Amino acid sequence: MAVRIGLAYNLKPEAPATAAGATSDSPPSSDDPPSPAPGVSAARTLRSDLEQPDLYAEWDEPATIDAVERALATLGEVIRLEADAQFPARLAAARPDFVFNIAEGLYGPNREGHVPAICEFLGVPYHASDPLALALALHKGRAKEIMAQHGVPTAPFVLARSRDDARNVSLPFPLFAKPAFEGSGKGVSVRSLCHNRADLVAQVDHLLATYRQPVLVETWLPGQEFTVAVIGNGDEARCLPLVAMRFDTLPAGAPPIYGYEAKWLWDTLSNPLDIYACPAPVDESLADAVRAAALAAYRALDCRDWCRIDVRCDGAGNPMVVELNPLPGILPDPRDNSCFPKAARAAGMDYDDLIRTVADIAWRRISGRSLLAGAAA
Ligand SMILES: Nc1ncnc2c1ncn2[C@@H]1O[C@H](COP(=O)(O)OP(=O)(O)O)[C@@H](O)[C@H]1O
Ligand SMILES: [Mg+2]
Predict the structure, then answer these.
(1) Ligand 1 pocket, Cβ-based, cut-off 6 angstroms
(2) Predicted confidence band of residue 63 (pLDDT cuts 50, 70, 90)
(3) How far is ligand 1, taken at its centre, from the CA of residue 140, in Å?
(4) What's 336's domain CATH number?
(5) What is the pLDDT of residues 208-264, one digit of tens each?
(6) Do 171 and 132 have their domain in common?
(7) Mutate to test the pocket of ligand 1, among 312, 314, 318, 327 (most ligand atoms within 8 A of CB)
């Protein structure tokens, strides 16, 4: 009998016509919503009508949900389960054999754990990390504490909960300020790089007011940046080919930061940024150190099935883990430049292969049986 796979997702709403970002074409020097380049989907523009202009940045577009559904449909029967208020009742009624989870949730540091926690409550197995790992990874400060405890290299940091905390930070400048529990570039802008205390206090103030959560203030890492797609569990966990950031592709004058502007506004279908080099053009000893750091972080946080891990080198060239993304972005269109699918393609896996492989990794962990063998039979 076909395996019944629930697909849990959050669908990104389109911005109303009046809610697109500001219209100025000025260089990246302000925190006003930058104007989207031509070709930016309406769902990706910053929303001046919301309390946070990038509130829905982590949610998925219809094309992504459709693409995941199509890939999973080659393995079993797929049941769509939108992770809205009706999700618990929908899941209880459908009772799939397992849930393939790409739902990011909306509010609070535990938002990514909501869907898996509901699955656990109802006794439905699910793919990807558990609520604890998801919440730890989303809280970048907590994730760094766990990493430090396990000897995973990560930059020194403090959490600023007030303007006074920012005034009293004793780490040397330059520093980097970002919301403690956001993702997808939310709250990370060219203004996150602070060269002096006045910049830092202003940016912390702005982030506290906008995101209503502590601000992570950490040592600025000026070196090369990589993102590492990890798949598998236990001894089988492995890295796909490394993706390196090519900061020289950012607009002239922009600092080397892969924040909201670079992720969503400067990189468009009509004018792709080409910021990723995959496989990364680095020597093997650095590549080994980057992979080792990523796998150590994956294990320290008990991630499952898949995760994308950001690593950036400090001034001495040592890789430091910046953050973990246990619900990685997976835009299906190769022109969209999504890292995980790109790394998979460099490993010879197309989009369907990637989703099928990860679903199989999850199902083998859950049931001890292979989904791919079942589908081929
Ligand atoms: N300490 C840091 N030093 C240098 N750059 C950083 C630092 N922290 C973040 N960045 C830059 O900001 C980007 C986004 O930060 P990250 O923590 O990965 O947030 P997100 O969850 O939005 O991806 C990184 O990819 C990197 O380019
Ligand atoms: Mg990141």
Answers:
(1) 155, 176, 178, 183-186, 188, 218-221, 225, 257-259, 310, 312, 322-323
(2) very high
(3) 10
(4) 3.30.470.20
(5) 999 999 999 999 999 999 999 999 999 999 999 999 999 999 999 999 999 988 888
(6) no
(7) 312
pTM of the model: 0.89
344 CB-near residues (< 8 Å, 6+ apart)? 229, 240, 350, 351, 353, 354, 357
| Same-domain status, 243 and 210 | no
Helix (H, G, I), strand (E, B) or coil at 229: strand
Q: Which domain holds residue 305?
A: 3-149+222-376
Nearest ligand, CA 139: 1
pLDDT above 70 as % of the chain: 88
Co-location of 176 and 85 in the same domain:
no
Predicted confidence at residue 60, as pLDDT, reads 82
Token pair for 348: 């010879």
Peptide bond into 279 cis (omega under 30): yes
Pair (64, 161) in one structural domain: no
Ligand 1 atom having least distance to the Cα of 185: 22
Residues 112 and 86 in one domain: yes
Please count the structural domains in the chain: 2
Between the CA of 321 and the centroid of ligand 1 the distance, in Å, is 10
Pocket test for ligand 1, best of 55, 139, 258, 276 (most atoms within 8 A of CB): 258
Does residue 295 share a domain with residue 205?
Answer: no
CA of 310 to the centre of ligand 2 (A): 6
Please give the structure tokens belonging to residue 192. Answer: 């996150």
More reliable by pLDDT, 13 or 279? 279
CA nearest neighbour of 340 among 192, 248, 241, 259 = 241
Residue 300 host element (H or E):
helix 284-300
